[in-house]
User: Which sequence fits this backbone?
């Protein structure tokens, strides 16, 4: 305890030196936290965009549907099932869909199209579909076309589009629908080929009344995806025909892209850590050499080298600890602000991002693990650097140091 008190007092004998050391640690934590926050925020944005349009964080589907997305793998879905799954802890919303592929034809042109049978209110909560309308709206018996698909077919509001395809168990799917709305989805591939029907209309078109091809599951913000998946799977029949998949299983390409990006980001962080480490080491080295004579005098008057080394270790760890705490306190409000106010990209970069289906913003993540992990890494670097004054004291030549 006495050595700890001495270490604390020694820090403030040279306030300028101590403040410089703490500042280097402060900026180390700040930069590391911001870099990791931006990296995770961008990944969370990519995942959020993909799951809100395609898969949900969890999805109920036939076990064969992933390999062969056919309407033959639709399954029954009723209010009783929905109530049971909605009661699972962590579930925010369930979004049933019917999805099929058809030929869409106007009076002069034909194009392939993906028909989505949806519940407009649930889709609005899922991905803001209602805010993406250019004109018109959903109406019973009508169809909503993505803007580029409508252009390719030469259709406008009030025109009629004919759909022809194959429904459930090879039944014919055919119908003529007035265009009641035009929508501009955020993802480019959806703009080229998507048509929306009300869920009951799509079920009639594909001869799949009372059935769905998938049910997207969106969790509350802090819910455990793996726990929800296990609970939902336990509610399903043991025959295994219908199963619950998570987004990592459904979007392996996105997961691979994120892992690749994480690998490149780790390289950047390692370079940042090296720069940070040498910055901290430089200040500790200067601090140690400046006190060479002091160390020599202390050893010469009878202070044991081990106790002196332990005191220098306490000093460095105290400086590092205070710098880390200051870095966390400084980074938290910055991350919180940018978490609520994403940074908009410039016009050109924003347009490029939208073409790839990514929101034109730089997102920050406020995951608590970011602060804990980066603070731990920087504190570990401080502990490693703290070994230098310990080794220096143990090898100190007392006569030379006393005369310095």
Assistant:
């Amino acid at each position: 305890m006495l050595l700890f008190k001495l270490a604390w007092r020694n820090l403030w004998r040279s306030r300028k030196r101590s403040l410089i050391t703490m500042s280097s640690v402060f900026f180390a934590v700040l930069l590391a936290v911001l870099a990791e926050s931006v990296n995770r925020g961008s990944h969370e944005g990519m995942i959020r965009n993909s799951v809100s349009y395609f898969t949900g964080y969890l999805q109920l589907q036939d076990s064969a549907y992933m390999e062969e997305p056919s309407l033959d793998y639709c399954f029954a879905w009723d209010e009783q099932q929905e109530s049971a799954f909605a009661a699972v802890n962590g579930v925010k919303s369930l979004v049933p869909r019917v999805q099929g592929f058809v030929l869409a034809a106007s009076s002069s042109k034909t194009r392939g199209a993906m028909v989505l049978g949806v519940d407009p209110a649930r889709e609005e909560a899922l991905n803001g579909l209602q805010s993406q309308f250019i004109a018109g709206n959903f109406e019973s018996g009508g169809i909503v076309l993505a803007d580029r698909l409508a252009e390719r077919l030469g259709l406008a509001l009030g025109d009629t589009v004919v759909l022809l395809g194959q429904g459930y168990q090879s039944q014919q799917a055919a119908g003529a629908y007035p265009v009641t709305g035009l929508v501009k989805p955020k993802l480019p591939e959806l703009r080229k080929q998507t048509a929306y029907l009300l869920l009951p209309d799509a079920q009639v078109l594909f001869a799949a009344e009372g059935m769905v091809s998938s049910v997207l599951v969106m969790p509350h913000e802090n819910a455990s995806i793996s726990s929800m998946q296990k609970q939902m799977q336990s509610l399903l029949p043991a025959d295994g025909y219908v199963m619950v998949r998570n987004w990592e299983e459904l979007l392996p390409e996105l997961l691979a892209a994120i892992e690749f990006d994480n690998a490149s980001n780790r390289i950047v962080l390692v370079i940042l850590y090296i720069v940070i480490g040498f910055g901290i080491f430089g200040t500790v080295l200067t601090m140690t050499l400046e006190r060479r004579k002091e160390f020599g005098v202390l050893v010469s008057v009878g202070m044991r080298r081990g106790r002196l080394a332990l005191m220098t270790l306490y000093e460095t760890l105290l400086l590092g600890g205070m710098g880390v705490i200051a870095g966390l306190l400084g980074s938290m409000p910055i991350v919180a602000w940018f978490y609520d106010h994403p940074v908009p990209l410039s016009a050109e970069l924003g347009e490029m991002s939208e073409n790839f289906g990514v929101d034109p913003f730089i997102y920050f993540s406020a995951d608590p693990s970011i602060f804990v992990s980066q603070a731990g890494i920087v504190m570990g670097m401080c502990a490693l650097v703290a070994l230098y004054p310990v080794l220096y004291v143990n090898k100190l030549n007392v006569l030379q140091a006393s005369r310095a």
About this structure: The first strand starts at residue 58 and ends at 62. The CA atoms of residues 139 and 158 lie 12 Å apart.
